[in-house]
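Translate structure to sequence.
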């Protein structure tokens, strides 16, 4: 910042998405569609379950972190919540067919 301090209204408005981020997301959506969309992802997950469950899924699933509250024995439990359980159950059903 210069000597004048922060100017009101300078920069991108709070909460807006940069055009580069938006363009990248659109490119990923196009690639996803070209690679088969959800059906292509399911086929890939069937042949690469470790990569899916250990690589992609944990990064995208909703995350809840719980602390036991006992400072003498700190423990953190990571829970991907009901959404994670539903996705795993759904994929288990698909892969068993």
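Result:
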């Amino acid at each position: 910042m210069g000597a004048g301090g922060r100017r009101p209204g300078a920069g991108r408005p709070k909460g807006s998405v940069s055009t580069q981020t938006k363009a990248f997301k659109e490119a990923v959506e196009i690639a996803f569609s070209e690679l088969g969309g959800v059906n292509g992802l399911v086929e890939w997950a069937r042949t690469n379950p470790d990569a899916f469950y250990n690589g992609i899924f944990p990064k995208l699933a909703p995350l809840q972190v719980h602390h036991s509250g006992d400072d003498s024995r700190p423990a953190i439990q990571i829970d991907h919540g009901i959404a994670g359980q539903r996705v795993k159950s759904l994929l288990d059903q698909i892969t068993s067919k």
